[in-house]
Amino acid sequence: QVRVTPQMDRLGPRFKSDAPKVAEALAALDPAEVARAVEAGEAVRVTVGDREVSVEPADVEVRRETPEHLLAADAGPVTVVLDTQITPELLVEGLARDIVRHVQQYRKELDLNIEDRIHLGWAAESEELCRAIAEWRDYVMAETLALRMEPDVGGGPSKRVKIGGAELTIQIRTA
Prior knowledge:
Layout (H helix, E strand, L loop, with lengths): L1 E5 L1 H8 L3 H9 L3 H9 L4 E5 L2 E5 L4 E5 L5 E6 L2 E6 L4 H22 L8 E7 L2 H9 L1 H8 L1 E5 L8 E5 L2 E9 L1
Helix pairs in contact: 1-2, 4-5, 4-6
């Protein structure tokens, strides 16, 4: 959001008793257009009564305000805005990627060869982790070279990891 604020300490000496009218006329304009002109170093023309006056860039303060979940950066005439809000879809995808990372780390700890195919057992109490595994099952299997992936750890060695504040137990058996 763009806010344009007339600088009354500058408008007053220039426009005397018309300064409030100049500020009012400036406020009636589209703030984005005023900001574009001011940032380009151009004067803004406003109508006060029956005459047109020129408001200089130094007579106006331009402020860009962004909501907390947005980050903005200016690069000359271009502004880039990044939405940092994590949607449920992004959360689930991030959990799936963390699952892959932990399985790959466990493969490394078990000294498996990079091309070894595995059977992957898992157990999770978190709804989000279960959803991530369900929705991203093909991805997890492809990335970890799993031929089977089942919600069962059974007997044998396993590893517990924390993902997103929840515990996941993973078990790897070579195929």
